[in-house]
Design brief:
mainly alpha, Four Helix Bundle (Hemerythrin (Met), subunit A), rod-shaped
């Protein structure tokens, strides 16, 4: 009888150990998966924010090159650079769309890209100043919303 109790106790101990190890492994895998997703989101959101910043700066430089005739600024070169940076920002937005589940964040990203893209060289000074401010606010609104979608705790 003692040996039967010992065998049953050993089996119960083995089953309990297996159960807890399996649960701990599942928890660890879930944590790793969530951490990878968080890091990918941080990377995608910051890449998009940076792409918007670069596009915005180049669009403003192009406007200033035409309207203020700044020395050393080539409007034609800046035009092609603006096209290149727009494509980069659009690609970064696609990455954001793939990585987030938030329709609100995607819409803020689209709005920010549209607002930055409205900075064109044919604008009057007042309209340029207004769009410069609007685009800056849109970029920061996207980044603020993105921060809320990245669990930093």
């Amino acid at each position: 009888m003692t040996s039967v109790v010992a065998v049953v106790g050993t089996l119960l101990g083995s089953l309990a150990t297996h159960y807890f190890q399996r649960r701990n492994r599942a928890d660890a895998e879930r944590f790793q998966r969530n951490e990878r997703l968080r890091q990918e989101r941080v990377s995608a959101y910051t890449a998009f924010g940076g792409a918007l910043g670069n596009l915005r700066r180049t669009s403003k430089d192009r406007w200033y090159a035409i309207h203020d005739q700044r020395d050393g600024a080539d409007p034609e070169m800046l035009r092609y650079e603006t096209y290149r940076l727009y494509t980069t920002a659009l690609e970064a937005l696609f990455r954001v769309q793939l990585i987030t589940e938030s329709g609100e964040l995607i819409e803020l990203g689209r709005q920010a890209l549209d607002d930055v893209d409205r900075i064109k060289p044919n604008l009057e000074r007042e309209e340029f100043a207004r769009l410069r401010d609007t685009s800056r606010q849109s970029v920061f609104a996207f980044m603020e919303s993105a921060r809320k979608h990245v669990d930093l705790a």
